[in-house]
Amino acid sequence: MTNKPLDSLPPTETLEMENGLSLVPRVRLNLTVYSSSQVVTKPIDEWKMKQTLIDFLKNSLSVSITVPEDDLQIRRLKDLKKRKRDDPIAFGTLFIRNLGFLNKTSKRNDGEEEEKDVKELEKKFLDWRKYIVEKMDGIELNIEGVKYKLNVDVPESDNFEAMKKAWEEFYAFGSRGLSTRGRQEPDTIILRGAPSRWFAEPRVSSKPSMLVTHTIFSTFGKIR
């Protein structure tokens, strides 16, 4: 854990805030499961699918990853009769929270650790995330003789480089060519679907607190 400024915080370290709040780093991946057979007679066994993926992460990567069951969610399609031939039979979400192995640094001849460079660590983080997506995407899973194909991708909300590029292009050029109104930057955040308890003061109320909400978002910049 660290109290470093936001712009110098590596993507693998926890961001400490006031009032005991913190933001913990993680990798999130979307999973889509397809049947390798055109005919599907029974729903997928969610528990066995989870165990198969957990074993894959632990034994088939360059660095063994241990994922708790709660960090791997599989949601099967309940009504297979309404499913079209090419439709997936299940969806899932994978969270990888233990990223400490990315912080390991080599040592110089004099035994001193090399200084951690945030930019290099960010690149290492992105390269590793790309690696794990490439390793998992398209693999075939065999569960009790039934074969499934797995598709894996990074959610748009977690692809910060792509979002940054899109924001910069939109505010630089607008919708009709080059903007003549000078530099513009995004200044509005719309948050939907987040549990209200994330912004509550547990000892005071279960409802969202303005103080907690302000504390969280002021970490990223000035609130107008």
Q: Mean pLDDT across all residues, rounded?
A: 80
Approximately how much helix is present in the residues?
A: 25-40%
Amount of beta strand: 15-25%
Instruction: Name the overall outline.
Output: globular
Tell me how many strands there are.
7
Q: Count up the domains.
A: 2
Radius of gyration: 22 Å
The assigned structural class equals: alpha+beta
Largest sheet: 5 strands, antiparallel
The run of helices and strands is EEEHEEHEEHH
Q: What is the straight-line distance between the termini?
A: 29 Å
Q: How is the topology of this model organized?
A:
Blueprint lengths: L14 E2 L5 E2 L3 E9 L10 H14 L12 E5 L13 E7 L21 H19 L3 E4 L2 E8 L6 H14 L36 H9 L6
Antiparallel strand pairs: 1-2, 3-5, 3-7, 4-5, 6-7
InterPro entries: AK17A/B
Protein name: ZCW7
Any overview of this molecule?
The chain has 2 domains: 140 residues, no CATH class; 38 residues, no CATH class. It is built from 4 helices and 7 strands, in the order E-E-E-H-E-E-H-E-E-H-H. Helices cover 25% and strands 17% of the residues. About 4% of the residues have low confidence. Strands 4-5-3-7-6 form a 5-stranded antiparallel beta sheet. The protein has a two-stranded antiparallel sheet with strand order 1-2. With 224 residues, it is of the alpha+beta class. The longest helix is centred in the middle third of the chain and has 19 residues.
Task: Give a brief description.
InterPro entries: AK17A/B (IPR056852). This protein is of the alpha+beta class and 224 residues long. It is 25% helix and 17% strand.
